[in-house]
């Protein structure tokens, strides 16, 4: 793993750069603030779920923006619907039964493609 600042890594394998680190810190901080202010609700887990999902998509498996849309569009619709209806139970059921199968299905789909560049890709060179 090479520490990149804001450059795109073209080599296959795990990727991590400064912008990813900043994104992780911001969402984890937001989660901490939500935990502190809304302890009785599970709102604080939403930023952690987002950061974990995008970390898998962007850094570990590197599935690409086109495939990510099949996950983040349903996430946004589900989150907005549940937010306006104040139904966190429905949100977490939707995450478990809708978003997680979509996420792992996209990852498996991306791994089977010839242009896959994420972790364990065939073109990855260990140095």
The counted number of beta strands is 0
Radius of gyration over all CA atoms, rounded: 16 Å
Helix content: 55-70%
Q: Write down the overall mean pLDDT.
A: 85
| H/I helix tally | 4
Q: What is the N-to-C order of secondary-structure elements (H for helix, E for strand)? A: HHHH
Poorly predicted ranges: none
Main β-sheet description: none
Measured by DSSP, the beta-strand proportion falls in under 5%
Name the overall outline.
Answer: flat
Terminal residue distance: 9 Å
Question: What structural class is derived from the secondary structure elements?
Answer: mainly alpha
Describe it.
By secondary structure, the chain is an all-alpha fold. It has 4 helices and no strands. Helix 1 (18-37) packs antiparallel against helix 2 and helix 3 runs antiparallel to helix 4.
Structure summary:
The chain has 127 residues and is mostly helical. It is 64% helix and 0% strand.
Structure keywords:
mainly alpha; 0% strand; 4 helices
Which helices and strands occur, and which strands form pairs?
Elements: H1 18-37, H2 45-60, H3 65-84, H4 88-112
